[in-house]
Amino acid sequence: MAQAAAVAKQPAPPRRRRGSATPRTLPYLPYLLIAPAGLLMLGFIAYPVLSVFYYSLRNFNPTKPWRNGYAGFDNFVQIFTKDTQFWDTLTFSAKWVVVEVGLQLLFGLALALIVNQTFVGRALGRALVFSPWAVSGVLTSAIWVLLYNSQTGITRYLADMGVGEYGTSWLSDTSTVFPAAVIADLWRGVPFFAILILADLQSVSKDLYEAAEVDGAGRLRQFFHITLPHLKDAIVLSTLLRAVWEFNNVDLLYTLTGGGPAGETTTLPLYIANTSVDAHNFGYASALTTVAFTILLFFSIVYLRLSKFGGGDK
Amino acid sequence: MITKDAEISAPVVPAPEPAAPQQWPRKTRRAWDEAPRWQIYLPLGSYLLFTLIPFYWILLFALRPAGSTSLVPWPMTFEHFEKVWTERSFGTYFQNSVLIGVATLVMTTVIALAGGYALARFDFRVKRGFLLALLCSQFVPGALLLVPLFQIFAKLQMINSLGSVVIAETVFQLPLSMILISGFIRNVPYSLEEAAWVDGCNRFTAFRIVVLPLLRPGLIAVGSFAFVHAWNHFLFALMFLSNQDKQTIPVGLNTLMSADSVDLGALAAGGIIAAVPVVVVFAFIQKWLITGFSAGAVKG
Predict the structure, then answer these.
(1) For the stretch A114-136, what's the b/e string if a residue is b when 16 or more beta carbons lie within 10 angstroms of its beta carbon?
(2) Where does the record place a coiled coil (chain A) (predicted)?
(3) pTM of the entire structure?
(4) Any B CB within 8 A of A209 CB
(5) Predicted ipTM?
(6) Yes or no, beta carbons of A146 and B267 under 8 Å apart
């Protein structure tokens, strides 16, 4: 770029040439090119984030305007000392993320290893097992609401076969709602991991396996010494992004269980959404958001440090 | 992978799967390449069952008459589709969703293309900071920003206009799209552009004539991804559009689900209507999915 600018500033050569190796470039061209994206992100991500921080220090509730004003750290004090619901939803969020991401990684890895092999019908097999990935949160909920329906869902047919009882709904029972929601989200989440891991698997050199073969390494050792180290960065990054996404995502649980029964499946973001949208307690919701944001940031940094992301001897 | 632009496949050659001739049992075992057949088909088959039963279930409910408990959708009926399309105004929702999806696709692709080109071909002062901001934005939850976003759109008098949703979806799509596109551009040799300059093109025409055609597969993948996300995403539409005639398909589905007595046939038919465009797009980009596109899948 610097070169381009320097060339552009030189006096025009006396003889008209047909073209040059470097076209006339305005020095501010790159800034012009990133301006639309930069301005949009400044206005609709950076500014909202800052205003969330600002509101977290205030009482702000349109339905109780007489209380509005500067509140200092009152909101935060309340979150950490009085608000049991905060701790409940945070615990559930952690449980949800750990179980979901762990299982998705496990199944996704297995699935990727399987469809990475050559076998008859591979293209079709891949297309089919990956298909739920394209299905949205709400549509996933719709599908699983149908499957879990107490009258006509899968439980009815299971009961016909002598498994379970008629009229049970896995989504309204506190003992079954968690596994039921986990399975629904796995259905959509496993293909995501499988696709990412498969993409990275394609870049493992075949020579490595052949060399290992010559040295007498069995398949398990090959997996642990070649495949897994190669996949490490992909796994670290996809796990982190997925964890953040599973933590933040409200589409599925909001529509599948609505956070119920009895608040059993309310994640922290869902609690925040309820606090701000239903209860209009924007100030308090902003403080909760700030806390959630800090937790995510802290978790991400620790995770990347622990996994030595990008470093190592690869 | 975000950090590994180099590994995002070259858009020039969308890495065709070499259709290796099937090699039937050879005695020499070759690592994971040649696991016994049952070790492939058994787990894959079970997983396929888990994947496909829910799809079958929704088809079944959509096609069999209300009240039927048959496990085969026969006699087949389309009453549920007619009902959701007209009575539940899924026709209108569909139209709104298409508008939002296409507008998001266009905006995301164009803006990310400009930004991606700058990131790929120039060195400029704020570049590192900008890249860092792109990555950090991945950790900002859209759902938690609902209230400030609502206030901004209220100030701009854009509540209840589809534009608000388009902007919100675009903004949250941009970072990844831009990183992806800059990776694609980096894979196009710079010398191609230089050759065009020598032939008298300026930067823009050189880009249009030489680079753009080579980017087509990548752009299709990024654009489809933006479309699918805007099509599927629920929260922004729910919050920013309160008029019935401005709603989108996912909001319509949610309404069907949270109704007092859930009409399962209508819900299933609505779900299929919601899935159709995504399935079409999905079939269309299948080729590029594994190679060029995988890095974009991080938002699931």
Answers:
(1) bbbbeeeebeebbebbbbbbbbb
(2) none
(3) 0.79
(4) yes
(5) 0.79
(6) yes
